[in-house]
Amino acid sequence: MIHVVVVEDDPLDAVELVAALRAYERRSGVPLHVTVHTDGADAVAAHDPRTDLLLLDVEMPGTDGLTAAALIRERDPDVAIVLVTRAAAHAIRGYAVGAAGFLVKPASPEALGRELDRVVARAHADRTAGALVAAAGAGTVRIGAADIVCLEASRRRVRVHTLAGPHVVAGPLKDLEAQLDGAGFFRCHHGFLVNLRHVTEVRATTCRLVTRREVPVSRPHRRAFLAALTDHLARAAAPG
Questions:
Q1: What is the pLDDT of residues 186-229, one digit of tens each?
Q2: Cis-peptide, bond into residue 172, ω within 30° of zero
Q3: All residues at 6 or more sequence positions from 57 whose CB lies less than 8 Å from its CB, including other chains
Q4: Three-state SS for 201?
Q5: What is the pTM of this model?
Q6: Burial of 137 per CB tally in 10 Å (0-12, 13-18, 19+)
Q7: Residues 182 and 130: beta-carbon distance below 8 Å
Q8: Helix %, strand %, coil % for the chain, to 5?
């Protein structure tokens, strides 16, 4: 699923963009979750760190596209931003906010498709590598799966313990677990998700991690956890 946010104050232009996105979805088979905002301030306030692509109209009353892009970029250094404008000259100003590209209205399906192809390729690469993207404070963090040792639920937050240190991000744990599906993580306890590659020892009621931290292994999770760890070790030791 690719998350796209359209920020466009003109209803007709918004309808055309959404129609082009749906056409791309049908043509490519890539599912899109599309959200539309008619005001830059609303887009900034509602920004979701899962967003893959922002399509921002440059010329809007109030908070225009460039201002909204700058404010969102402060919180999210990784989201792809594409400016939509009737004046190609605005594209130069887009470099200041790290815009990945621009579309001149009316945006052709081919031009929009090229931007989406780049976003889809990047999202696929991140997910193949197991990157975790989550809200942290007023911004967003992107953490490579290989660097994550374990995740610890703490009320409505999750503490992500990495080889370099911890990050506190928005939960719940099950949402982050879904992002890391297939990246070698397993629940050893209802409140802990561990990276199997960083488990060095399993004891009676805990497991020891490469950072020397011990996390609990609960009775309901123990059998499945040991089976997953055994399978992981066997695959890691397999030749080729």
A1: 999 999 999 998 998 899 999 999 888 999 999 999 999 999 99
A2: yes
A3: 7, 8, 9, 10, 13, 64, 65, 84, 85
A4: strand
A5: 0.57
A6: exposed
A7: yes
A8: 40, 30, 30
